């Protein structure tokens, strides 16, 4: 295993953000947008703090938020959810992932993950005492391969952690990929923990295909969403968990002992936003798509090859054209000498990391992106 995982590591995001602060560098590392988020939603939260109830809300979440989430997912993803039995609110998607793992997994069980793996998954799986099994996805398409998944799934597999769209690569899995996953899992009892936090951060007119909308996966899926990503306010930490009642009940039991509940003001505001901000969401997609294109063109001018990104805040750059084969060393030098923070993609691998790719967050205003590109060109 990658030594970074030998014990609970400091996340690569925290490490790079600390370095960015220490060097007064521009931070295109940790993924958070410059955008302030929809004003009416922020206003609702402020009003709710001033005028509303600020004590513990129900453990499962405010009924109005669970109902709004059900309407939102029906409208956008064709998913039908009973708000009272199939929707729960958590303090962010990371809590939802932790609650799902702690609910499903016993020491000695196996959990399947796709590499590159979002950074929180493996430490949580290891702390739960489970054995990780990896399926390597390969660039440039990162498609799912049925045989590779079959080879990783066995009688001890309790869960498959599946991130769509995929952080860090920006790959967006289509319905056929989800059907491939369903076929590969036929005959197994594995639960799919579908981390869909980037469901609305998706470009080029694509539609997000939720695992819950695929009939052959629906009964074995825990879908996880994030209000922080939907409304460009990553500090809000309001997560949405959707699953069949039998499955959600188990995850709810773990959630009780992690955070129990989530600030009611934020839940009220997110409920309002899920019902009223469809146009804002479409505008956010268009704006981020333009930024992706602006930044990718700039990478090309700087001599790096941008890899295709169909969603997320991220574009990856291939270092091979400039002959660099150590992404960590490059990122450390770039932040220290070049004044620009980025994320080495090798941090998303447990075994045999790809060391020639760097992740940049393009969800920043254009002046910041242009300055970042100037610094990058100067450094290279
Ligand atoms: N999801 C964010 C990213 O990928 C990081 C969140 C965090 O810092 N834990 O950059």
Question: Could you walk me through the main structural features you see in this protein, from its secondary elements to its overall organization?
Answer:
It is a single chain. This protein is 43% helix and 15% strand. With 380 residues, it is of the alpha/beta class. It has two domains: 3-36 and 280-379, Aspartate Aminotransferase, domain 1 (Alpha-Beta Complex), CATH 3.90.1150.10; 39-276, Aspartate Aminotransferase, domain 2 (3-Layer(aba) Sandwich). Helix 6 (121-127) links the parallel strand 3 and strand 4 (131-136). The chain is globular and about 55 Å long. The mean pLDDT is 96. The site of glutamine has 5 residues, from loops. Glutamine binds at residues 11, 13, 30-31, 167. Residues 25-376 form the Aminotransferase class I/classII large domain. This is Aminotransferase. Its cofactor is pyridoxal 5'-phosphate.
Number of domains: 2
How do the helices and strands follow one another from N- to C-terminus? Answer: HEHHHEHEHEHEHEHEHEHHHEEHEEEH
Distance between the termini: 31 Å
Uncertain segments: none
At CATH level 2, the architecture of the largest domain is 3-Layer(aba) Sandwich
| Secondary-structure class | alpha/beta
């Amino acid at each position: 295993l990658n030594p970074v995982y030998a014990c609970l590591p400091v996340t690569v995001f925290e490490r790079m953000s600390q370095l960015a602060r220490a060097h007064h560098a521009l931070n295109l590392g940790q993924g958070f947008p410059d955008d302030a988020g929809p004003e009416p939603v922020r206003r609702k939260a402020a009003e709710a703090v001033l005028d509303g109830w600020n004590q513990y809300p129900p453990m499962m979440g405010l009924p109005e938020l669970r109902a709004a989430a059900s309407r939102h997912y029906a409208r956008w993803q064709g998913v039908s959810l009973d708000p009272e039995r199939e929707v729960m609110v958590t303090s962010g998607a990371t809590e939802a992932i932790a609650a799902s793992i702690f609910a499903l997994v016993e020491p000695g069980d196996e959990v399947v993950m796709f590499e590159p793996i979002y950074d929180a998954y493996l430490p949580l799986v290891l702390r739960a005492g489970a054995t990780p099994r990896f399926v390597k996805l390969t660039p440039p398409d990162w498609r799912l391969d049925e045989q590779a998944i079959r080879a990783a799934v066995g009688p001890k597999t309790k869960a498959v952690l599946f991130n769509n769209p995929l952080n860090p690569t920006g790959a967006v899995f289509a319905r056929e990929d989800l059907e491939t996953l369903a076929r590969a899992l036929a005959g197994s009892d594995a639960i799919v923990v579908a981390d869909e936090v980037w469901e609305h951060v998706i470009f080029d007119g694509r539609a997000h295909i939720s695992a819950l909308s695929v009939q052959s996966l629906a009964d074995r899926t825990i879908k996880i969403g994030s209000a922080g990503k939907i409304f460009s306010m990553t500090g809000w930490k309001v997560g949405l968990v959707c699953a069949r009642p039998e499955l959600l009940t188990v995850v709810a039991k773990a959630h009780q002992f992690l955070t129990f509940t989530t600030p009611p003001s934020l839940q009220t505001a997110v409920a309002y936003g899920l019902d009223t901000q469809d146009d804002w969401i479409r505008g956010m997609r268009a704006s981020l798509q333009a930024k992706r294109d602006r930044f990718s063109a700039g990478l090309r001018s700087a001599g790096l090859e941008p890899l295709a990104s169909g969603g997320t805040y991220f574009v990856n750059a291939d270092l091979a054209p400039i002959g660099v084969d150590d992404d960590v060393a490059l990122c450390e030098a770039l932040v220290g000498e070049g004044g620009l923070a980025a994320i080495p993609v090798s941090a998303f691998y447990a075994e045999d990391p790809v060391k020639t790719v760097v992740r940049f967050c393009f969800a920043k205003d254009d002046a910041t992106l242009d300055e970042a590109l100037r610094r990058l060109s100067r450094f290279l």
